[in-house]
C-alpha cells in the first residue's frame, strides 16, 4: 500500500521513536510533518526530505500550549490542505519510587503526557470533524501495564491516555474518525541510554529490545491500514504482556 498524497503529522519527531515513525511514513510515500518543541526538528525534517519522495517539513510545536498546537495544525493545512494521520508521540516525565514523587514531579509528568495528549487530540478531532475523516494514534507504554517500578506518575498519565483513546474512539466512530493507541515495549532510543535496557532485558521473552524502526511500522500500520480498528491499545512488547520465560 502506498501513502502517496496522504499527510501525516508526528509529534515528538526530532529523535527516537517519533523520528522513526516519521521516516516510515515517508518511506511509504506520505507527506510528513515532523513536530517537536525543539527547533532542531526543522533540520531533522530537511535531512529526511532530501531522501523522500513526498514532501517533508518541520514544525515547532509545544504540546502543552494550545496556541502552539493550533498553529502547527494550521501550518499543516495551509501547506497540504488535508491531514490524514496523526501520531501523538511526544511525552516524557519523571520516574521515581512512588513515595519520592513530589507534587511538581507528578504535575510535570501528567501535564506533558496526559494533558498534552488531550490538548492535541481535542484540536485534531475538531479538524477531522471539519474535513470528514482522520486517524489518530496515541503513544501508550508497556510500562503502564507491566512495569519495573518507579513509574507512578508515568503510569497515571499513560493509563489516562488509553482511557482517552477509548472515549474519543466511541464518540467519533460513526464519523469516519479512528482513534487508537500503541504501547511500545523496551525500545532502543536515546532516552533509554544509561543501562536501563540491559537491566530489564532478561524479563523480555524474546530476550532483546525492539528497535525504533520495528515499532514505527506498527504505528504506521495502525494509523493507515487498520481501517476497522478503533479504540484499541496495541502492545508491541516482545511477549512481555503474555508471559515470562
From TrEMBL:
Pfam families per record: adh_short_C2 (PF13561)
EC annotation from Swiss-Prot or TrEMBL: 1.1.1.-
GO MF, one example: oxidoreductase activity
Enzyme class: oxidoreductase
Keyword annotations: Oxidoreductase
InterPro entries, per database record: NAD(P)-bd_dom_sf, Sc_DH/Rdtase_CS, SDR_fam
Keyword tRNA-binding attached: no
Similarity remark: Belongs to the short-chain dehydrogenases/reductases (SDR) family.
Name of the featured protein: SDR family NAD(P)-dependent oxidoreductase
Species whose genome carries this gene: Loigolactobacillus binensis
